[in-house]
Amino acid sequence: MLKVSEYDVIVVGGGSAGAVAAIAAARNGASTLLIERYGFLGGAITGQYIIGLKSFFNTRGEQIVGGIPQEIVDRVIKLGGSPGHIRDRFWVACGSTTPLDPATLKYVLDEMAAEAGVELLFHTFAINTVVSKNTVRGVEITNKSGRQIVLGKVIIDATGDGDIAAWAGAPYEKGGKDGRMMQVSLIVRVGNVQKDKLISYIKENPDDFIIGEDPYSGLTRELVVPRLKDFSEAPEIGGFFRLVRKAVEKGEMHPFSPRGGVNILISPMKEEAYVYGTNIVDIDGTNAWDLSRAEVELRKQAFILVGFLRKYIPGFEESYLIDVAPQVGIRETRRIIGEYVLTAEDVIEGRKFDDVVAKGSNPVDLHSPEDPRKIIHKFVKGGGSYDIPYRCLIPKGIDNLLVAGRCISATHEGMASARTAVTCMATGQAAGTAAALSVKEGVTPRRLDVSKLQKTLREQGVILYGVH
Fold first, then answer.
1. pLDDT, tens digit, for every residue of 278-329?
2. CB atoms within 10 A of CB 299
3. How does DSSP classify residue 228?
4. All structural domains of the chain with their residue ranges
5. Cα separation of 208 and 225, whole Å?
6. What is the 3-state secondary structure (H, E, C) of 320-344?
7. pTM of the full structure
8. Fewer CB near the terminus (10 Å): N or C of the chain?
9. Helix orientation angle between 102-116 and 67-78, rounded to the nearest 10 degrees
10. pLDDT tens digits, 410-429
């Protein structure tokens, strides 16, 4: 007989959305279990090394995400793991970039979860759902202790892939019109990087970099280039196109790098950098065979990339590989269809909704499913932000279930904006708070009074109004 445990709220997935959702639920009085397959929290930030968090601010310079996500940043800063929010003078598509050290973030999330009273269950996979009359009652899990059933009054699917919602019978979509999903990548961490040499090269070759891309920032290439002083202003650098082209022609670099260049994310730690310069297409992140193929191919590309860095990129001559991200970076899998579907038009027009529970400002960031070198950006008009309605967190046809993070209800292009870690954190706080309030009120999340949810979120530092 399977062991059974009961909680008010069960969060499946401890990534940026799930970790924040669990902390929010517990802080609002719910007994909360957080289930995570790895031995740490943080998801894409700590597991995929997406260390440059985008869009705490819009391009106008207005902060649009606060609450628990901002508290996380503040605590990482105090431990020396982040310089804080930086207006990105290169990759000016996002309003701001906030570099976070993954190891420091793991510790901070552990501490915040413990302080809130979250029960953590690491090294555990959800394998099925317990459903009765279109209502999710619990989750079947497996780990070293065997198979178990955990029951909850509200379940939050923060798996990124929408596993729980899909298994429960919620409708979902994958990919664009042809079903193909965005490309998959892998990031490497490199040490002994001489950042002064790197910045000197950029100053001397500004035409080889992506600068002043956002039309609403007011920062043209001509304005940005003279301001290049140090890496406090450039946490992420995209370019090196001529060097990549030269290396590919000589057979010293693979031809699958983003836009035909590489992206360097400057670590908060001395002489350390994270580099994105690998890609593979036609991978389904919900298919273990595809994931296995991607891991092997991208590690191969990663080692070619490191050799290229040493030979071609100034400042990397004596660098060495510290490690490769624990898992490949998945940009898109299932998108659960909810009571409202966020669209590209909502993002681009900066639309506002009466049931707003989170905000985003990242551009539609489409990494082509066909060509690993192709990336398309569509920006929020006027450099503002858009609202994410509570309805995007409520799956159609299934009760006692909320979704948070990458798998919220959105189109292929809408998700290409809302998938970023900061926006995922924001939807996580909304979902966790909604779950706890639903338990208190004795209603399903679908029946929760949104005005009460909004009031609670604002009292806890969430930014819903007063910005473009």
1. 999 999 999 999 999 999 999 999 999 999 999 999 999 999 999 999 999 9
2. 16
3. -
4. 3-176+332-459, 187-324
5. 12
6. EEEEECCCCECCCCEEECECCCECH
7. 0.96
8. N
9. 120
10. 999 999 999 999 999 999 99
